[in-house]
Amino acid sequence: MGPPWSQESSPEEGLPTEWSREWSVTRRVLLVVSLFSLLLGSSVLWVYIFRNCGPRPCETPMCLDLLARYQASGNTSEAPCTDFFSFSCEKAKRISDSFQALAEENKKRLKRQLEDPGSWHPGSGEEKAFQFYNSCMDTDAIEAEGAGPLKQVIEELGGWHISGNRTSFDFNQTLKLLMSQYGHFPFFKAYLGPHPVSPHTPVIKIDQPEFDVPLKKVQEQKIYAQIFREYLTYLNRLGTLLGGDPIKVQPHASLSISITSQLFQFLSPLEQQEAQDMHFQMVTINQLQEMAPAIDWLSCLQATFTPMSLSPSQLLMVQDLDYLRNMSQLVEEMLLKHRDFLQSHMIFGLVGTLSPALDSKFQEARRELRQKLRELTERPPLPAHPRWMKCVEEAGTFFEPTLVALFVREAFGPGIQSAAMELFTEIKDALVAHLKRLPWISQKTRREAQNRITQLQVQMGAPEWALKPELAGQEYSNIQLGPNFLQSFLSCVRSLQARKVWSFLQPLPYHRWQVSPWGVTASYSIPDHEVVFPAGLLQPPFFHPDYPRAVNFGAAGSIMARELLHIFYQLLLPGDCLDCDTRALQEALLCLERHYAAFPLPSGTSFSGSSTLLENAADVGALAIAFQAYSRSLLEYRGETKLPNWDLSPHQLFFRSYAQVLCREPSTEHSQVTHSPPRLRVHGPLSNTPAFARHFRCPRDALMNPSSRCQLW
């Protein structure tokens, strides 16, 4: 007999058969319910864990504002795998321009500061900046003055045959005054720049002039005639506004256009300059005097670049000596035959230069001319800007050292600067790691490249010297505001020129910042081996410490990576990297050129794959490095966030932010030669990145998921 528990009967024993079957069914139902409850509880638990361990929505005011910006600029109905540019940048057939919008936001910030009635020390830089801005905005006073202040300026130059009160015309004396006192250069440009051999030594550069009239040597005769008529109408209008008889103004205006046309014909075409590799030539003032004797070079340059001490043996950097010879010959001929007309040509040009400080009649005449000329040359019309924007720009130009401190204090505090520097360090580290994996670079070149990255200097926000409060008062001691806005404007022009000369003569790098701290352009200085990121660039929507890291790495991080890659342009040029695997490098570059050429472009846009190759390579490399840095940051840091109520993962948000930086209309200006059209700058690098296709689940052979890719960076 076994143990007692082995003989115990089951609950079903002794029960009727029907009850036994019912109990069996009940037990099965209870088992299913228990299993279902267990699975449901596990699912809820996993959902809870996933939601708490995954990216949390960022609901700070900065993130909500960014979400609104992104939703307003892109068209999410577009398929990202087919047209990511429209997905990110095009809303209701209107393309947003991120850099232009940011530049306007920075100007609005300056506007608020300039309109803040702070209590400033009498005579301080802040007080003068605010007074200048208010004077610029006082259009009633400017209109009441009319052409009076401009007529006074013309009298200071010796008068004008057209408007009366004319004295004898001394060509070189007038030219010297125009250059030194009024910032107008009618026949050539003269400015200070770094010496080609000793970059920290200033040298005077003589360059080609800028023309109001968009002439071309191959221009159709019909268009040229229309341009001539429009410009003639404009000059006639200026003459009559200054009190001239329209009948007397007409021949002066016609001959002024003839002078402009002849000067333009003397220029070497840009294509010829590039083909012949025409650079600045070093000549002394004495040598230039012999080649172009109509200009009193020493006198004019000494007056313009005081307090520099110039002598006949002073070296100058001159571009296009042939132009200067021909220009000098034309001036000599005009002085012999048409002195009055030559003076009129110089006066007409001065009025155009000073038009921002004149009343609405002069400004409207110039605006209409520019719009008409853009129509004739099939360029898009210039956007209309409010008066305050022009006044902010002028105040920013003339009072930059004072306004820098105000702008940086509000827009780029220590916390933002620290976060931006941390981002730059991560981008730089990713580039160093990236160099180790490049198949076409040699060990020796890789070490040299890593050393250059290590030695690189970085400036963020604003130059240190500009933030010193004691500097502001010294900068503007020579500015006299009043009695009218034109005189205030001219006083600021002279002060600015003196400040530029003074800065170039200083041992410290006062002149190395190429943009204002509220500007939106990064730069790399080759002689200083220094990269500069102004405070105005590291702002929403490109950067903010409260943003998800995906946004900062995709937008500001890609901008930083692109500037870093400018250091290595020479590696990609034929014959410049002797230790590189030339064959592999050239194959990668050729692959990249074909990759870009395969993309369709909207009608009316075009690009040259060869001339944009270096910038295309920088775009592709910048995206790869920024994405690598972001991926590494996800391993090292927890707590990534995403934008709320928006169906984009952090990785998708990274790519969306990268594209946001490049949102803009295609440019028709000459600068477009070095960059591909914006749509191509988005699609080219993203389609060359496998991670993009993976995170957006793009089908194979879709536009943004090609079957083959290029491995350059």
Automatic annotation (TrEMBL):
Domain Peptidase M13 C-terminal: start-end pairs: 522-712
Entry cofactors: Zn(2+)
Keyword Zinc set for record: yes
The keyword Transmembrane belongs to this UniProt entry's keyword annotation: yes
Record-linked SUPFAM superfamilies: Metalloproteases ('zincins'), catalytic domain
Compartmental location: Membrane
Pfam families tied to this protein: Peptidase_M13 (PF01431), Peptidase_M13_N (PF05649)
UniProt-recorded Gene Ontology molecular function terms: metal ion binding; metalloendopeptidase activity
Record-linked Gene3D superfamilies: Collagenase (Catalytic Domain), Neutral endopeptidase , domain2
Keywords annotated in UniProt: Hydrolase, Membrane, Metal-binding, Metalloprotease, Protease, Signal-anchor, Transmembrane, Transmembrane helix, Zinc
Any single GO BP term: regulation of axon diameter
InterPro entries assigned: MetalloPept_cat_dom_sf (IPR024079), Peptidase_M13 (IPR000718), Peptidase_M13_C (IPR018497), Peptidase_M13_dom_2 (IPR042089), Peptidase_M13_N (IPR008753)
Protein name per Swiss-Prot or TrEMBL: Kell metallo-endopeptidase (Kell blood group)
Membrane topology: Single-pass type II membrane protein
Residues covered by the Peptidase M13 N-terminal domain: 80-463
PANTHER family referenced in this protein's UniProt entry, alphabetically: KELL BLOOD GROUP GLYCOPROTEIN, ZINC METALLOPROTEASE FAMILY M13 NEPRILYSIN-RELATED
GO cellular component, one term: cytosol
CDD domains in the record: M13
